[in-house]
Specification:
Oligomer: homodimer
Largest sheet of chain A: 3 strands, mixed
Largest interface: A-B, 33 and 32 residues
Helix content of chain A: 40-55%
Number of helices of chain A: 6
Structural class of chain A: alpha+beta
Strand order of the largest sheet of chain A: 4-3-5
Number of strands of chain A: 5
Strand content of chain A: 15-25%
Shape of chain A: flat
Order of helices and strands of chain A: HHHHEEEEHEH
DNA sequence: CTAATTGCAAAAGCTTTGCAGCGCA
DNA sequence: TGCGCTGCAAAGCTTTTGCAATTAG
C-alpha cells in the first residue's frame, strides 16, 4: 500500500509541508517503525522547520484517517508505522529496540475465537514477543554490559 | 499463590507498613488489576499516610522480586497484579477499563514456535485483546456518549 | 478570503529522583 | 544504633493544548 497526497485530501487534511514530509518519511524509512521523536529529529536534520507538537498532531490525524498505526510497547515506547495490507504482530528486542514483524494465522484465529467465546466485541488486539535478538552488534552489546 | 511477610524478607525488603499494606491490597482487592494511582487513593482512603512515590518504589521492588507483574496497556494505562501460578493474557475494555484474564494454550504454543522458528530468544510476551465489554453499566455509558 | 494549520511555549499526565528525617532489625 | 525506607517536593519524559501568526484552497 502506498499513500499519496490524494489520500490526505480524501481524509479532509490539507496538503501541507509537514504532512507530506512525515508521510514520506514513514513510507521510505528503512526502519519501518518510527517514534515521534525519531521523525522530529530526522526532519530537523533534513533542515525542515517543524515543531514536535506538529509531528504529534499529524501522527494523530494520520492514525484517525487510517493511514498509520500506533504501537505502544512496554517501557512507554511508542512507534508509528504505515498501515500494511496485511495485519501483523511484532517481535521487539528488549536490548536494542529492533522490531521484526510476523504473522500467524493460528494465533489470529484463536484470538477471535477467545473473544467470541467470552461474548466480547473485539475491536483491536496487540501481541508482542519480547526477545533478545540475534544481531551481532546486539549480542556484543549485551556481553559488554555484563 | 499467596505472598507473606516472609516473602518480603526473602527478597531483601524490610517489612514496612507501606509494603505490607500494598501487598495486602493487591492480594485482597476484588479488582485484580490495580494502577499505582488506584493503590495510592485506596490507601489514603484507609487513612494510611503514604506517598505516591513510595507506591511506585514499592511496586517496582515487588516486580523485581517476582511478586507482582506490571502490564502496560494502550493509552498509557499501567496496572499491577499479584503473580499467579498460571500465565494468562488480558482482555481490556476500551470503554471502561475493565480487565478480564484468559489463557489459551494454542496461542501460547504458537508464540514459542514463532520465536524459535525465527531464531530469537523469547524472554517475554504480551497479548491484549481490546474489546467493548458487556457489563450493563458500560453498555449504557457508551450509549450516552453517542 | 478564511478556516485550517503551524511553531512556540506552557501545561499536563505519569513516573522517577534528591534529600532530610524516621523506623525496622 | 545504622542503614534502609519514607514522605515531600522537584524534576524528567512523553504527549497535549493555547495562542497568535501563517498558509492552503
Amino acid at each position: 500500500m502506498s499513500f499519496t497526497n490524494q489520500d490526505l485530501r480524501k481524509a479532509g487534511l490539507k496538503v501541507t509541508l509537514p504532512r507530506v514530509k512525515i508521510l514520506e518519511l514513514l513510507e521510505k524509512s528503512s526502519e519501518h517503525h518510527l517514534s515521534a521523536e525519531d521523525i522530529y529529529k530526522t526532519l530537523l536534520e533534513q533542515g525542515e522547520d517543524v515543531g514536535l507538537a506538529t509531528v504529534y498532531r499529524v501522527l494523530t490525524q494520520f492514525e484517525a484517517a487510517g493511514i498509520i498505526e500506533r504501537h505502544q510497547f512496554e517501557n512507554n515506547y511508542s512507534v508509528f508505522e504505515i498501515l500494511q495490507a496485511d495485519h501483523h504482530d511484532h517481535i521487539v528486542c528488549q536490548n536494542c529496540g529492533r522490531v521484526v514483524e510476523f504473522t500467524n494465522p493460528v494465533i489470529e484465529a484463536e484470538q477471535h475465537a477467545v473473544a467470541e467465546r467470552l461474548g466480547f466485541e473485539l475491536i483491536g488486539h496487540s501481541l508482542n514477543l519480547y526477545v533478545l535478538c540475534d544481531r551481532p552488534e546486539c549480542v556484543e552489546a549485551r556481553k559488554r554490559r555484563k
